[in-house]
Amino acid sequence: MSSSEKQSTNLFPDLPPYRPPQHGLLSYLPSSWVPYGELMRLSRPIGIVIIYCPYLFGAVFAAAVSDPSPSPDSLLKTALVLLIATVFLRGGAVAFNDLADRDLDGKIARTRNRPLARKAISPRNGYIFVAMQAAIWLAILAQLSRKCVTYAIPLLVLVGLYAYSKRVTDFTPVPLGFTVAWGVFIGSVAMGVDPTRLMLDGEIPTAAALFCFYLSSAVWTNIYETIYAHQDIQDDEKHGVKSMAIRLKGKVKLVLYLLAVLQVSLLACTGWLIGAGAPYFAGSCLGVAVSLGVMIWKVDLTQPNECWWWFSNGTWFVGGSIVFGFLGQVWGDQELQSLLDRTH
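Given the sequence above, the corresponding structure tokens read:
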């Protein structure tokens, strides 16, 4: 047993020591690759979905405001390329976050066996791995548009700032929200709708709608990240880790409800600015309101397993509602126009 493993065992004598994965994707990797697969969180693909959602949001937003609307094949192709890129973005982002937290992670029960915390990967190799992931991510985005790369560069800065934000603020979900939601802009640009060009061309309502949509995605991140953080709240308190979950203890659900109202209001403002119809408001507004309301009402923040379940499954309810609302706007308008054309 290595010295790092002995230290982890001493900190958590009632918990089992690290064991290599026995099932799932990681169990099929060569043993030397397993720590890097763990570093990318390949065993928890829900993280890819969560980070991918804003990219998909941006793409469907662009489809809804474009005239003419893009073909389904074009939208699907762009969405798939963005998904592939997200795998590497997420891998690099969580690896960089683990590098920043490698000393702290070993003191937290849930994160004690992360590869950097248990010293299965050296910091030097960790940084090389992060750089490789970022380079692959940018190369994939470049296949869509050079402008995507231009908008991607600020995101690298935001990722770096977020990784160290917990050292200076209790409200770490706020910078995380602005970071994750940045995908809205990249997804929109990938479909040919550039927010900078919108403002230069005087299309202020559409630009404002895109900004409202970005803010709504940032608020959503604050909601699910606060629920997620309750998994570690006891260890975080013990080791003095800054957390919004700790800062708002006793009134977390009230704040989550207020954030839900804010998110739905921003989605409604987005729809109003682009002149959306009933399909959008039914899906992206009503659907999100119901999903968030049920999630916040049902989740027991004292139970880590429940926090994880609602964190992972709530993504499908909320994210799916937003996407289907926009798709209803795109294809609902196309069907209406086809009907009008036939009647004339």
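Confidence is low (pLDDT under 50) at residues 1-9, 339-344. Try to locate this feature in the token string yourself.
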